[in-house]
Structure formats: structure tokens, C-alpha cells
Amino acid sequence: MEKSEKQAAAQQAVDILHEISTLLNCQLDRRTLSICISMIENGVKPEALAEVVQKLREEGRVLMADIEALAAKPNAARRK
Amino acid sequence: MASRQQDHRAQKISSAIDSLITHLIPENPYEDDHTAELRHDDYASAIKALLDQPSSSSYDADVNNASDLIKRKLIQGNPTQALRFSHLYTRLLSLPVLNQKWAILYFLYQLSDSPDPNEPLPLSPLAQQQQPHFDQQFQPQIQAQTPPPQLLRQPQQSAWAAEPRSPAYEEVQNEEVMEDAPSLEGSHNVPPERPRHGRDRGHTLTQSHQAGPASRDDNREVVHDPSEPALLRDLPFTLQGLSSATLPFLNDTTLKLPPTLPIPIISLLNTLAEPSLLYRGLNEFTKTPANGLLGQSLRAAISKELRSYLTLVATLETQIRRALSELDESAPRGGIGKTGVTLKRCVVWTREATMGLRLMSLIAEESKNKHGGQLITLIHSFSSSHGDPVVAAFAERLLVDVTRPFYDILRRWIYDGELLDPHMEFFVREQNPHDEERKDAKAKGQMSVWNSKYEIIDRMIPSIITENFSQKVFLIGKSLNFIRHNCGDHRWVEDYSKKASRELKYGDTATLEAWIDEAHKETMSHLMHLLNDQFRVFDHLEALKRYILLGQGDFIALLMESLAPNLDRPAGAQYRHTLTAQLEHAIRGSNAQYDDPEITNRLDARMLQLSHGDIGWDCFTLEYKIDAPVDVVVTEWGNRQYLKVFNFLWRIKRVEFALASTWRKCMTGARGVLQTSDGKVLQTWKSTRGVLAEMVHFVGQLQYYILFEVIESSWTELQKNIHKENCTLDDLITAHTKYLTSITHKGLLGAKRRQFPSSTADGSTAPSSTDDDRNSYMVQLSELLRTMLAYRDSVDGLYSWSVSDFTRRQGGLISSHHTRPTSTRDRADSQAASLADSMDLDPPYDSFDSTPGGEAGGVKSEFPALQDRLRQLGANFKTRLQILLGDLAYQPDVDMRFLGVSMNFNDVYQPVRRKGKSSTTAGAAASGGASGTGGQGQAGQGQAAKA
């Protein structure tokens, strides 16, 4: 009983925070947000975490670009 | 226990890191599992390293006010979002689950305004330039790790990969990367303004990087003296018109700018100097004494606007103070570019205020020689015809305050009928009795309390009020004033003002007009009601028509009959008491006795003052007394017109009466004393009767024309006009004036161009030639009437002669039978008889035979002279009549032409047409006639005097 209540509260917290993040244009989806919240709750420094998220995003984007580039190039298949 | 918990936590964190990586880093389908795992591990370790860093000091100070930071940021971007955030924040605080709320918020804050992750990475040259310096050392390694195509992207990729290996270096760089990010994004994704604002206030560290492209150039700018901060510091004082160290005012209209400044700054300061100088000027203006209430209200309105300008300056000052306090001395140009307050910005902020000040000083300047309504017109012209909506709106606002005293005056005027205008600012004004024009009008007797107390000044009518409207306003006030002061109805006016009084204000013109219309209607109807019921204007008008315009026939006939013997005497022998007694008698004896005593009491008979030698007929007049409120309708001028018409009609009536009595005498005499066998005498009598009949016809036609064609038809017109719905007093006065004018005009009184000083200046003095031209009808008619009277005198003479002849013949008959001496007695008898016969006529004609009677030759000698005279007078009458008919035939007025036709219905007369006004023949004829009758008239007078 208590657990479900807590879960509901957590859910609500995530909702609110997600809304704030939308207000702030943070471009975080709910999953990322909840991961980050749990990390911060576990003592991770927010500043560092923000940095990490940004780095990871950048990396992801670079990777995506690469993937797309590879997909576009026919010789990509040869490497495999 | 603690360590286990820590382990647990570390485990949790690392699993979270794993999921984060998998969530954020897309899977590369071209990589084999091993590389992917390697990479994953790489990331994980890098993240761990990052997370384990000692916290930088920068956020420690801020952690507790993360929400404040967010709020401030949102306020700058969008205030409604800030509001929404505060709601969310309170809700978040009430939740029990999270322990690190501030940290989460701070985290979000750090991440705010991230680029959309779905968007492809911009191929920014800047980004490539930015990082090579620390990429180079790692390049080989990365080349080995990453597939060849990635070489293209090397810099970014390797930077990330390199980081874990050089933590110390990275710390510095990291900061830079992070802080640079927004600035880069700024140039691509979001308007440049936003990130700058966002960071300015909150994060001092970032300032140097976020100034935006514009501020980069600032570095090149020469630092000038005095510096911009110094100028900014002094600016509020300057804007308030106070001298300061850098910007001193030399005098009221000069501001000295420091000569050391570069031209752009000078031009900015020039722009800023405008409101300062205008403010100074206007401030001076508001202190000058005003010449009138509107002037005062204008000053008040201006100082109100100045106060709001000062509020603006105060706000500006606060901004400047804050900006200066946040100033970073080390930044280029004193960091002024980032504070958000610069001279340029001040110029923009004060621009609208400058417009207002400019307009006000224009108004202030022009108002100096404008007064009252003109002032309103001036401001209104800005609000109604200025193309710039800002100016129009400003003038409109000003107008509300400025017009307040005007509307106060207006209110007093239309609701109380009082003119409360000590400075002559209203468009209604009390008339100055010493004016030249006034004197002229007064001389004409057209003045009355109604139209000469107040006047409307056209140039003072403000343009917010239309012409028609102002007339209405004028009429309302005038009527109220009139009701109060002249009709003595205070109570109604007070009740009315209590009931109807409303606050009038500039703005809704339609409502205002409705109110004024209402007031107009009510006032007018009450005024007409008062005049009609209490002062009986209509009854008076009718009485005037009945008595003065001879409408009541029986009364006039009786009056004339009873007065005739009296009036035959010279003017000096007329006594007022006899006249009034006869008047009373006439009233009693006629239907006038049934009239209201209120009206008959006003009738008065009196003598006009005339020159010596006139007989009573010439100076008798009937008067109808008009008193206070009604005299606005029947003015002095109107009274004079009535008098004139009365005198004219009275004279015609008199001639008619005289002719009628002579005619009667002739008719009765024809059966007795006038019978004779002398053919010559018979012939003379015949022609005399013919001429007499002509005259009776003429007088009859004339009277009919004037009484019926002129007076009655004008009266019908008047009735129609004054019984119209919503007829005002002005309408009544106009209608009455029109009525009188049409009577005098059509009634051949010739009052077209000129009014007679007195209508009775007719008979005794020979008319001058100019009068002859102007009032030809009047002169002609009076000549005609005089001829008729002279003719009648002659007829009476002829009658007397006939009687004496008859007596002589009888006497002769007797003397032949009896003795001679009896003839004297007989003659005396016959004289007595003739006297008795002509008792109510002019002096008996026996003066002619003043020679001792009995001599037939003496008596006989009278006859040719009489015959001659009668012929001459008859011819004279005919000539004059023909001239008159000639004039009438070419009259523009149909009624007057018709008079000519009815007089000459069987073409007995040949109308003589006069060729133009100053034609010599006509003049000769007229003057010849005039001189002829003049002589006759004198002869007649001589006879009268002898009698």
C-alpha cells in the first residue's frame, strides 16, 4: 500500500519535473529524466551530471551522423 | 552498514550510468559487439571520472536558489511561463518523495535551452575551429579506434574520447565548452537576445562569453572621456533638466556636451538632450501664470504629463543604477555592453516620451496667444487631424484634462442658465452695450432682453462642438436665463437644474449631444409654455391685430365716429382725457367690451407730438401697451411698425369716412337743396359725383387689399409658423418679424430699405426727392389721400355754394314776393342749415362767401373757381392714380400687382409706366403733381386756419 503511494508520488514528481524541463527547453524525455533524478537522489552532483548528459548527447549525435554517413556510402558494407 | 549503503548507491549509480548511455547513445549497426562494449565502457569510465570530480565552487553559492535562477530566466523570456513554473515549483515542494529537489532543479537549469537532440549536428565551422588545439595529441589513437569515415568528424569525437585521460586540463576546457555552447547555439537556433539575457543576470562567470557578436566589436572601441558609465550616471539628472558635471545646462535652452566625445556618442547625447531641454521649457511654462481657467487646466494637464515623464526617468535611473553596480570593470568598454543599459538604449526608452514632450511644447508655445475655446480647438486639431496615432492619442488624453473647466462652464450654462466665465473663455458672452454695432441696432429698436443680453462668439467655439450644436447650447442657456430673470420663474429653473444636471466630460460626443438635445427640448417647451399660458403672447398678438391693425371693424367705426368732431380741431386743442373717454366709449359700445379687460386695458389713445398747425387727425394714435417678457417678441421696432401701419390705415379709414359722409350729404342733398335748373351746375355735380365714386372705389380697394390680402394672409402665415411643433422663442420672434415686414412691405409702406424715424412725417412736409424715390408708394398714397381730402373739401364747398345758391334763389323768389330785408335772415338760416349739415366735417365752406351776402354776383363768382378747382383736383387724382397703377403693374410681388388689377379692373385708367427710377419725365410729373397739391394743401390749410 505504502509502496504504491510512494510510486504515485514519484510519478507525480517526475511529471512536474518533466513539465519544468519542457518549460526550460531541456529536451529531456521522461526516461532520461527519471534516470537523472534517481542519480541525483543517489548523490550525484547535478552540475557534473548535466555535463555528462550534454556530452553524451553530443556523442550520440556524432555517432548518428556517422551512422547515417555510413549507411549512405556503399563501401560501408565492404568493411563488414 | 554505511559502506554497504555506499556500495549499494555506487552500484545504483553505475547501473543508471549504463542505462543512460544506452539510452542516449544510439546503437551503431556497423560496429561489432566488442567495439560497442569497449565504447560503452569508455563512456562509463569517462562519466564516472566526470562525476567524481570535486565540485567546482561556482554552483555552491547558487544551489539553494536554483529555483530563483530558473524563475529569473523565465521572466526574461516569458512571464507567463515563470508564473507556471512557480506553480509547479510549489507543487514539487509539497511532494514527499525527493530529497534533492534543488539539485534536480539545478540540473534542469544547467540543461536549459538544449538543442533538440533529434536535429542533426550543425556543421559549424566555429565548432571545428574551437577545439583542434587540444585534439591534436590524441589524433593517432582515435584514428585507430574509429572507422575511416569518422575522420571527417575527428575533432569533436576525439575531444570527448580524450577527456578522461587528461582530467586537469579538461577541467578548464570543459568550462569553456559548456559556456560556449549557448553562444554557438545562439547564432543558430535561437534569437541572439535570449541567451544573453538568460545568462547575464544569473551567472557572472559566463558574462564574458555571452555578450554576443555585437559586443565583440566593443573591444576595438576607443575609451572616451567621460566614459559611457559616467554619462549614464549623469543622464537621469540631465533628463530632469538639472545640470550635472558632465552635462551642464548653460541656460534654459542650451545643454553643453563635452567636446571630447566621439561623434556617435555626441549624436546620441543630442537625441537625449531634446527631452531634457523640452522638459526644462515645459517646466518653466507650467510655472507661468495662466490667463484663464483653460490655460490653468492646460498647465495642470502638462504638469501631470511631466510627472509621468519623471516617473519614467526614475525607472530609467533605477535601471542605470543597477546596471552600473553590476558593471564588470575588467570587461571591454567597462562591460557596459552587457548590462543592458546603454546610451543607445536610453534613447530608445525615452523616444516616446520625447514625442509627448515635443507635442506639449508645441501646444504650450501656440497657446500663448490663444484663449478659451481656441485653445481647445488647437489641441483638438492635433487629436483629430494629426496623422500619427501616437500624437493623436496623446492629444486626446491631454484634451480630457484641459477641457474640464470648459465643460464646467457648459454645465452651468445649459443646466442653470448662468454664465460663469470670469476669463471670457466660453463661446457665449455677455454683450458689450457700448459696441458700435449694438448702438446701431439699439437705434433701430431691435434690441430686447432676449437677443441683446448674450451673444455667441464664433471664433471661440471649440472644434469639439459643431456649429449647430453651439447654437443649441446658446439657446438653452439663454432661455434658462430668460426664464429665470425675465419671466421670474426661479423655481422651475432650480428644479430643472437639480433634476437634469449631469457631469459633462470630454469623450462621448453622442451622449453629450443627446443630453443637450434633451435639455434643449425641455427648456424650449417650458419657455413656450410660459409665454403662452402665463404671458399670453398669442392673445396679445391677436389683440394687436384687432385693434392696431383695425381688424375689429365695429370698434374702429365707433371710435372714428365719436372722435371725428374732436379731431377736426387743431392738434393743440386735443386733450388726452377726451381721447381716452372716447376710446372707452368705443370699447363699451362695440364688441370689444367682451374682450378680456387684461387686453382692453392696454389700449391707449394719445396724440403724437407734431409740428404746429396740424389738425387732430394727423396726430391721433392708438396704442397697445406691451410689457416685460412679451416685449421680446413685440419689440420696440415691432411697436413702431404697428404704429406705422395703424397710422396709415387710420388715414385711409378717415378718408373713407369723410368720403362716405360727403357722399351721403350729396345724395340726400340731391333730393332737396341741390336741385337746380342750371345745366352747368348739374353737369358739375355729375362729374363731381363721378370722381367721388372713383375715389370711394379706390379707397375701398385699398382697404380691402390691406386688410384682407396683406394682414390676414400674413396672419395666417404667422399662425402656421408659431403653432408648429417644437417652435422656439427664436422662431416666434422671427415669425413675428417676418409678419410685420410683410405687412409693411406689401401694405405699400415701402419699408423695404429704410425705416421712417416716425411714420407720421407724411402730410405736412413736402417729401424730398430722395424719399420720393425710396418710398414712392408711401408718398404716392399719401398724396392721393391728401388729394381726396382736398377734393372732398371742394365738394363740401360746392355743396355750400349750392345751398346758398338755393337759398338765394329761394330768397330771390321770396324777395320778389315779399320784402328784401328778410333775405338777410334767410341767409342766416341757410347758413345755419349748412353748418348743421356739415357739422361733423371740415370747416364749412362759408369762408368763401365772407363777402356780405345778398349780392348775387359775389356768390356767383364762387362757382367757376370751385368748378375749376374740382376739375383740377380730379385730374390730379387721376394722374397720380395712373402713375401708381403703372408702378404696381411692374411689381415683383403678385399681391401688389393684383391690387393694381382690382383697382383698374375695367381698364378705365391707363397705367403710366415710369422708365426707371430716376427717369426725368416721371420725376417731372411727380414733382409737378406734388407742387400742385402742395399748393392746394396749403390753400386747404389756409381755409382750415380761417375756420
List keywords for this structure.
heterodimer; A: 80 residues; mainly alpha; elongated; disordered C terminus; B: 947 residues; two-stranded antiparallel sheet; 6 strands; cytoskeleton (chain A); MZT1 (chain A); Mitotic-spindle organizing protein 1 (chain A)
Kindly describe this structure.
The complex is a heterodimer of chains A (80) and B (947). With 80 residues, chain A is mostly helical. Chain A folds into 2 domains: 44 residues; 36 residues. Chain A contains 4 helices and no strands. The longest helix of chain A has 27 residues. The radius of gyration of chain A is 18 Å and the shape is elongated. The N and C termini of chain A lie far apart (54 Å). The C terminus of chain A is likely disordered. Chain B has 947 residues and is mainly alpha-helical. Helix content of chain B is 66%, strand content 2%. Chain B contains 40 helices and 6 strands. In chain B, the strands form 3 sheets. Chain B has a two-stranded antiparallel sheet. A two-stranded antiparallel sheet of chain B has the order 3-4. The longest helix of chain B is centred in the last third of the chain and has 44 residues. Chain B is rod-shaped and about 185 Å long. The C terminus of chain B is likely disordered. The interface between A and B is large, with 57 and 70 residues.
SSE blueprint:
The complex is a heterodimer of chains A (80) and B (947).
Chain A: H1 2-23, H2 30-41, H3 46-72, H4 75-79
Chain B: H1 2-24, H2 33-52, H3 66-77, H4 79-94, H5 101-111, H6 125-130, H7 132-135, H8 139-145, H9 154-162, H10 167-188, H11 193-202, H12 212-216, H13 228-239, E1 249-251, E2 254-255, H14 263-287, H15 293-325, H16 343-349, H17 351-366, H18 373-385, H19 389-402, H20 404-416, E3 428-430, H21 436-443, H22 449-452, E4 454-456, H23 467-485, H24 490-500, H25 509-534, H26 537-548, H27 553-567, H28 576-589, H29 597-600, E5 603-607, H30 616-619, E6 620-624, H31 636-670, H32 679-722, H33 729-749, H34 769-774, H35 776-817, H36 822-837, H37 856-860, H38 862-889, H39 894-903, H40 920-946
Antiparallel strand pairs in B: 1-2, 3-4, 5-6
Helix pairs in contact in B: 1-2, 3-4, 3-5, 3-11, 13-15, 14-15, 14-16, 14-17, 15-17, 15-19, 18-19, 20-23, 23-24, 23-25, 27-28, 31-32, 31-33, 31-35, 32-33, 32-35, 32-38, 32-39, 35-36, 35-38, 35-40, 38-39, 38-40
Family (chain B): Belongs to the TUBGCP family.
Region (Disordered) (chain B): 119-138, 147-223, 754-774, 813-858, 915-947
Domain Gamma tubulin complex component C-terminal (chain B): 538-909
